[in-house]
Amino acid sequence: MDANTEAIVRLCFARQLGLADDALEADGRVTVVRDDQVMTLRLWRTSVLVGPAPLLPALTELDADALADPSALLSLCGTGRVAGAARLSVLDELDRHPDLDRLEVDPDPEAATALEQRCPPDDVTEVGLSRMDAVFVHRAPDGTPCSGAGYAVWAGLVANLGVLSALEARRRGLARVLAGIAVNDALDAGLVPAWRVRPGNAAAERLGDALGFIPVGDQVRVELTPG
Fold first, then answer.
1. Are 24 and 48 in contact (CB under 8 A)?
2. pLDDT 10s per residue in the chain (227 long)?
3. What are phi and psi of 196, to 5 degrees?
4. CA gap 150, 129 in Å, rounded
5. Considering the entire predicted model, what is its pTM?
């Protein structure tokens, strides 16, 4: 992976966290005080620990495995809920799938909304396709949206990809090709494609591997209960 890609990803997360642009350039641990959540982020050899000041000493005592374990963080917090956990991967090379130029896509956000209406609610919520900055939706021969991919832009630097398919359109290779289209569009726009996979989502892990995404870290966030 190009060193510039790593620098862009580090810069993106520093800006998302409201830190100085160079805050995540060096290896080691960075602590950030936030009263409403506990969050751990690992990027290559750098870890970010976010949480209320009273919890940070205990948080810094956890090893790498515990920092990436939602149950361990929830136990440390004592109260709250796990708001997200994911493995983070990025890539910086164009996809070369032979069907990229053969598959017709609709970039209209309304097509993404129509697709969401045909998918399981949990999948719709997890992917958030219609809220993304760029979408690529494939329609069945009768014009019905059946599968789509897209990306949300983070800090003007990183494109967080997602794919969504109606149940009858799965296991046909459509998601693989559509994700490749999204990857190439993001790279053409000067963005670094990113792939977030929640623990246990084997299908998403396989798709990310097929696209060539390289794991670079993980992220866990616990929302704390007020009071």
1. yes
2. 888 999 999 999 999 999 999 999 999 999 999 998 999 999 999 999 999 999 999 999 999 999 999 999 999 988 889 998 999 999 999 999 999 999 999 999 999 999 999 999 999 999 999 999 999 999 999 999 999 999 999 999 999 999 999 999 898 899 999 999 999 999 999 999 999 999 888 999 999 999 999 999 999 999 998 75
3. -110, 130
4. 6
5. 0.92
Whole-number Å distance between alpha carbons of 216 and 8: 13
Residue indicated by tokens 């929302």 = 223
- DSSP assignment, residue 89? E
Q: Which residues of 162-181 are buried (b: 16+ CB within 10 A; e: fewer)?
A: bbbbbeebeeeebbbbbbbb
The structure tokens listed for 112 are 């993404």
CA distance 89 to 43: 10
Distance CA 122, CA 95 (A): 28
Going through 66-180 in order, the beta strands assigned E by DSSP cover 81-90, 134-139, 145-154, 158-165
Percentages of the chain per state (helix, strand, coil), in multiples of 5: 35, 30, 35
Q: For helices 174-188 and 202-211, what crossing angle results, to 10°?
A: 50
Local structure of residue 226 (DSSP, 8 states):
P
Burial degree of 117 (CB within 10 A; 0-12, 13-18, 19+):
exposed
C-alpha to C-alpha distances, 159 to 21, 193, 207, nearest whole angstrom: 18, 5, 16
